[in-house]
Amino acid sequence: MGLEDVQMRNLEHRANRAGWLRAAVLGSNDGLVSTASLMIGIAAANKSEFLITAGLAGIAAGSMSMAVGEYVSVKSQNDIEKSDRDIEIKQLAIDPEGEFEELVDIYVQRGLTEELAKQVVTSMHKKDALEAHLRDELGHFDHTRARPVQAGVASAIAFTAGGLVPLIGALIATSNQVGAILLFTAIGLVAAGYISAKIAASPLLKTIVRIFLGGALGVAITAGIGWLVGLTGV
């Protein structure tokens, strides 16, 4: 098997998508649910004149909040990875023999004989000792490392895309805006589940049902609160 064949086989794996997929799924789902919930809550409170304005404001505020929140949280993970790297550099400089034995022990626990493990570690230390320890001791891989900017941008774009779905439903509705928002939100949740399942290669029906039920619950709770507010006249 040649290098090109190996690279093609690796494309089937989904781990390299983890950094942005989680942010995108969360963003699109949050955009759909929070925008639809906000608009339905306002409609249920008999404040329909503010419906479109509230939807636009919710999308703008939500997308920025998601982007900043995702960036900050992923950047924290990135800082931890950098700190671990710095610690490993110091340990290799202070106690290379101890680090050598530590890596040997890891390979022995994985099933290699001690002699073979020492041969492997010797070869790896000659090539790149730091990367070997980061990978096998700490589980750091380049294709799964934290990427805060990528996660923040993916989250903001996905939130905006998700939020536009119920907003479009309200804009094109001629009479029953709430019904249109619910219909478009339901379609959007199904689409979000489908896309997520395809990208992650997860069970299609299970993923769609999970995302749909979670979104529907959020919308129902917010609509109920809006209805209660409308009854009290707040």
UniProtKB/TrEMBL annotation:
Tell me where the transmembrane regions lie.
20-44, 50-72, 151-172, 178-197, 209-229
UniProt subcellular location: Endomembrane system
GO biological process terms held by the UniProt record: intracellular manganese ion homeostasis
Taxonomic superkingdom: Bacteria
* Annotated source species: Candidatus Nanopelagicus limnae
Q: What is this protein called?
A: L-Ala-D/L-Glu epimerase
Query: What CDD domains does its record include?
Result: Nodulin-21_like_1 (cd02432)
Which PANTHER family does this one have? FE(2+)/MN(2+) TRANSPORTER PCL1
Give any Gene Ontology cellular component. endomembrane system
Keyword hit for DNA-binding: no
The way it spans or sits in the membrane comes to: Multi-pass membrane protein
Q: Which GO terms describe its molecular function?
A: manganese ion transmembrane transporter activity
Q: Does the keyword Transmembrane apply?
A: yes
> Keywords in UniProt for this one?
Membrane, Transmembrane, Transmembrane helix
Q: Which InterPro entries match?
A: Ccc1_fam
